C-alpha cells in the first residue's frame, strides 16, 4: 500500500512495565522493613530506584517532544504548481502528559508524607534508645569448677522484680586464648526456644545437694546462685527438652536455648547481651557454638526459614 494512502492513526505510547517494577520494589521494601531491614529492604529499595528512574526517563522522553499524533496534512502531497501547506507542529508538551506527571508526582509526595512518619514512629522506637544492661554476677571464686548454678538477678533494679531474670551458669575452668589461660563459662538463658516459657533444670538443686545457695546484693540488686545438677533442661509448657549445652533434644522448640555473652572484669563475672544459637557442637570450654543474632521464641535462625521472621529489637 502506498504510504500516502495509509490511514492516519495517532501513535500512542506503548504500555510500560516500569510502574509495575517500581510497585514491586516498594512492596519488597515495605515487607523488608518488617522481616529484614538490612537485606530485603535494600534489595527492594534498589529495585524501586532502578524502575523509578526508568519510568521517569520514559515519561520525560515523551514530554521532550516525541510526537503524539501525526497531522493529516503531513502526509498529503502539495497539488502540482502549488506550495506545500504549512504543517502545524506537534504539540511539544501535551497537557494530558503534564497533568499525568503532576498527579503521579503529587500522589507520591503526599503518600510519602503520610506513610513515612507513621512507619517511623511505629517501627523505630523498638530499635533505638534501648538500654543495654550489664549485670554483675559476682566473683569468679563463687563458681566451683564444673558446677551448674541457677542464677537469678535483676536486669534493671530501677524497674524492680519485673526485670528479674534466670540463667543457668557453669564454670568450665580455664581455656587458652592467645597463649593465656582465661576463665570459661557456659551461660544459658532459661527462655524456651518454642514459645518463651521458663525452662527448668532437670535435676536436683539447692539444699538437697548439701550445697549452699549464695546470695549477694550488689549494683544489680540481689543475685542468688543455687547449685544444681541438671541432666538437661526441660520446659513445663509443651515438653520441650534440651541437653546441658542447650541443644534441643525433644519437643516443639526449633533451635537450641539462647546464651549470654560474658566478660571477666577484676575477677568478677559480668553478663552481656543475649544471642541465639542454632546448635552447639562439643561441650564446655571446647564447645563450638553456632551463634546468630537474637531471635524471638519459635523463630528459626538458620536455613531458608530464617527469612520469614521480623527483626527483633535489641535487648538482653
Ligand atoms: S514453650 Fe517450651 S515447649 Fe512450648
Can you tell me about this structure?
It is a single chain. It is built from 4 helices and 13 strands. By secondary structure, it is an alpha+beta fold. The strands form 3 sheets. The chain has a 5-stranded antiparallel β-sheet with strand order 4-3-2-7-6, with no helix packed on it. Helix 1 packs antiparallel against helix 2 (40-63). The radius of gyration is 34 Å and the shape is elongated. It starts with 17 loop residues before the first helix and ends in a 24-residue tail after the last strand. The model has no long low-confidence stretch (mean pLDDT 82). The structure holds FE2/S2 (inorganic) cluster. FE2/S2 (inorganic) cluster binds at residues 192, 194-195, 197, 235, 237-240, 251-253.
Question: What is the element layout, followed by pairings?
Answer:
Elements: H1 18-35, H2 40-63, H3 72-75, H4 95-123, E1 135-139, E2 148-154, E3 164-177, E4 180-189, E5 200-201, E6 214-218, E7 221-228, E8 233-234, E9 241-242, E10 248-250, E11 259-265, E12 268-281, E13 288-292
Antiparallel strand pairs: 1-12, 2-3, 2-7, 3-4, 5-8, 6-7, 8-9, 9-10, 11-12, 12-13
Helix pairs in contact: 1-2
Bound molecules: FE2/S2 (inorganic) cluster (FES).
Q: Which features would summarize this protein structure in a list?
A:
4 helices, 316 residues, 24% helix, four-stranded antiparallel sheet
The succession of helices and strands, N to C, reads HHHHEEEEEEEEEEEEE
Main sheet properties: 5 strands, antiparallel
Which range best describes the helical content: under 10%, 10-25%, 25-40%, 40-55%, 55-70% or over 70%?
10-25%
Mean pLDDT: 82
Any ligands, ions or cofactors bound here, and which?
FE2/S2 (inorganic) cluster
Strand percentage lies at 25-35%
- Please give the order of strands in the largest beta sheet: 4-3-2-7-6
Low-confidence stretches: none
How many extended strands? 13
Work out the helix count. 4
Shape: elongated
